[in-house]
Amino acid sequence: MAQGLPDRVDCVRLAEDTAVLERVYPLGEMPRLQDLLADTRGSVRANFAFAKIESGRCGVTVTVEAHPHLVCQRCMQGFEFAAAASSEIEFAANAGVNPGDSQREAYLTDGGLVSLRDLAEEELLLALPIVAACTTPQTCGRAPTGPADEARHAVEDTTRPFAALQDLLKKTR
Length: 173
Fold this sequence. Notes:
Radius of gyration: 24 Å
Structural class: alpha+beta
Oligomer: single chain
Helix content: 10-25%
Number of helices: 4
Largest sheet: 5 strands, mixed
Shape: elongated
Strand order of the largest sheet: 2-3-4-7-8
Number of domains: 1
């Protein structure tokens, strides 16, 4: 984030001005992400488009893009995940305010102020998979090192998991 730019902003004033802000935050500055990350390299690019909405309240459309290195839950190795998401948020001054039949997510402000970093972190968390896993299970956590390794992977893919059970049944007859 550029020096001098505030993180906590007045959402009502920005909505009245229909302001559009863009911020870049290092992933290492997002505490709720830390347990999911293989390392803290990288950043999240966040765009905030504030506006007044039909209900008369203020809202924001939050868009994030990032390429965090997550921990695969199959092989426990790090891998890069392309995350992108966008949500429409309606601000509420207190927890008792019900946004009614609004299609937007409700977000509680702190005296009319919101943390842009917190909004970006929340949106990025929603964009991440519930269980992180490498995209190709056949090579999860390891890349083929040559033709012999690729052939071994091909053989592993065509093996039948109950072949040993079939052999055992033949012996007992």
